[in-house]
Amino acid sequence: MGGALRAALMGGFATTLVVGGLVALPSQPASAVTTGRPIAVAATDNGASYVGYATGGRLLKLDRNGAVAGSVPLDRDDDPVTALDVGSDGTIWVDYGASVSHLRPDGTLLDHFDLQGGTCPVNAAHDPTRFGGIEVTKDRVYVAGRCVATVGVYDHDGDLETSIDLPGTALPRDVALAPAAKGLPARMYVSVPDAGKVYAYDTARLRSGSTPDRTLVIKRFPGFRDPEPGALTADEKGQLGVVDIENNALHFYNGPENYWYYRTLGHGPDPASDRGFVDRVTAVDNADGSFKQGLWVADSGNGRIQHWDHIGTTDWMADALPPGDPDGPVNVALPAVTGKPYAGKELTCDLGTWSEEAAAYDVAWMRDGLPIPGATAASYTVATRDVAAELTCQVTASSASGARSAPSTSEVFPIAGPSSPPFVLERPRIRGDVGSGGVVRCTNGTWTGPEPTRYVRGWLRDGQLLPGTNAPEYLVTDNDVYHELTCRVAAVNRNGTGKVAISDPVDVEGQAGGHVGQPRNTKKPRIIGTAKLGKVLFCDPGSWDNAPVFTYVWRRDGNPLGGSEKDQYQVLGDDLGHRLTCLVTGTNPSGSAAASSGSVRPRR
User: Fold this and answer.
1) Where is the Ig-like domain (predicted)?
2) Which of the chain's ends, N or C, has fewer CB atoms near its CB within 10 Å?
3) Average pLDDT of 227-234?
4) How do beta strands 160-165 and 150-154 pair?
5) In Å, how far are 178, 199, 361, 518, 570 from 282, measured between CA atoms?
């Protein structure tokens, strides 16, 4: 199985816990989130949480189990919710980028004040999904600027006490506070995505001219892209969690132990929708300054909030659609974009279907999740700058009384360019005998050009990836009866790997299917990648009859290498001057068969 979405096709219900180095693969970055997806989350001490959106308007409230518990009206209808925090008294603090509001849990406004720096436009340079953050203590409000490279420290009445200019001109994404712990002084942490750094300040010595006491450069793991530190979370023991937006991961550092890195959650680097996987995390929070109640994660690319316990297992996932007014229209069928995906062609936004006839509709076209200035009509002409981007249209309906719906966003409409990885046009489908003993096949789907050169696959039962199922065919077993099967495909071309596409589920019925013979290899496995020291190699299992699942063993000069029972292997110094092969064993209920790849000789 080749391609760059390997890490995204591995794993189960728990998030990844890694000690030491990571082995993973490069891929295309996740695209920006749409304004219909959560970009901010804040947890209360009792485990409830509030969710904010770039559309503003209202916050969604979830209970401690992830169920919807209502919504909170905001005082600024159209300003994006850049960041959220909950005070020790249970009140809500909302950072809008240019101002901050202090609200009671029912939405009653307690105070509102402007931030230093004046106005703050919503555009790519000041994207609320990438910049800005807020942290509140009993007597201070710390705000990382969405439009200025500073952290402002305010009192609860909004009076500016001090402003810390950050090194350079890059904008910050988040700010987090940690009390003194085990000899480490109380810290203020600030993440700067474009610099790839997190700055640590001694909070007892914060002044307008303060410089960082420590600069953390986020490590780039093998196969990962350049890190982009985003949301931060810290606890009372001096532990620091740093979201790596670019690699869909959450790294943890032990502050009192000289910021020793000790684990990563989220199955990076590639975006995926499986349980415990993420796609462009924009916010993370804990409750009561501790990791004991776990972490709340705004998994923006997947449009959901996840709750991970303190060891990283996913407790629950909740779809987090933005709430509308309580008596506003309700979307029944999503809007849709139609037309030809080429520059100069006109696209049309079908408004979708609503529970009642609306008095008015507001349309907004999005490019990679951000509004396109002036694009508010039902039609839109594709511009040159849209090439290699993802377009959507967003519709908000209003009733005759003026009550507004939640914004509803179409599925992504990709505009492929000559240097783009594949975009899916038609999702894969499952064909065949969906009964125990039957063989089903996953189609490739249809993808944009340049023509895909290969496909990365996986099969899932009730949303959980089934190990070793990286082939187009799958043998249905008794374990699948009364469950749902889906398949996933990512297309690869010379420009990279596209985002994974998932089929519609099929229900496995109880009747017996056909009988299959023993596995038989029809095309030898092969090793993909550059055989150089430190590089990651992948074992494509080749082609097989009778739908086996696969296991792997890497060998050096014919001798098995302990701990290498995966379809990927990182070349070591001990491999230089020797020959590496991968042995693939295919197994089904009728038996097993093995086949070996050709050899490669690693070099320095």
Assistant:
1) 329-410
2) C
3) 97
4) antiparallel
5) 20, 19, 29, 48, 31
Query: Reduced to 3 states, what is the DSSP secondary structure of residue 478?
Result: helix
Long-range contacts of 147-154 (CB under 8 A, 24+ apart): 147/97, 147/98, 147/117, 147/119, 147/120, 147/121, 147/171, 148/116, 148/117, 150/116, 150/117, 151/175, 151/188, 151/190, 152/115, 152/116, 153/206, 154/100, 154/113
569: amino acid identity, one letter? Y
Element holding 592 (H helix, E strand): strand 591-596
**Contact call for residues 470 and 9 (beta carbons, < 8 A):** yes
Residue 337 in tokens: 């974009």
CA distance 522 to 527: 16
The residue among 259, 117, 283 whose CA lies nearest residue 200 is: 259
Is 142 in contact with 151 (CB distance < 8 Å)?
yes
**372, 378, 411, 454 from 375: Cα distances, Å:** 6, 9, 17, 37
- Encoded tokens for 380: 């839109």
Instruction: Give per-residue pLDDT as tens, 109-156.
Output: 999 999 988 789 888 889 999 999 999 999 999 999 999 999 999 999
Three-class SS string for 547-585?
A: CCEEEEEEEECCEECCCCCCCEEECCHHHCCCCEEEEEE
Q: What pLDDT does residue 451 have?
A: 77
Which pairs count as long-range contacts for 520-526, CB under 8 Å and 24+ apart, including other chains?
Answer: 520/544, 520/545, 520/546, 520/593, 521/584, 521/586, 521/593, 521/595, 524/595, 524/596, 524/597, 524/598, 525/582, 525/583, 525/584, 525/595, 525/596, 525/597, 526/597, 526/598
- Beta sheet of 439-442, edge-to-edge order: 430-432, 439-442, 473-475
First and final C-alpha spacing in the chain: 25
Q: What is the mean pLDDT of the chain?
A: 87
Cβ(171)–Cβ(131) under 8 Å? yes
Q: Which amino acid is at 515?
A: H
Cβ–Cβ under 8 Å, residues 471 and 550: yes
CB 352 within 8 A of CB 334: yes
Tokens 């532990």, residue located: 239
3-state helix, strand, coil in the chain (%, to 5): 5, 45, 50
Most confident by average pLDDT, 13-22, 166-175, 348-357, 396-405: 166-175
Q: How many CA atoms lie within 13 A of 236 on its CB side?
A: 7
Q: What does residue 195 show for φ and ψ, rounded to 5 degrees? A: -90, -15
Take residue 82 and report the two structure tokens written for it: 């850049």
**418, 450 in Cβ contact below 8 A?**
yes
The DSSP symbol for 362 reads E
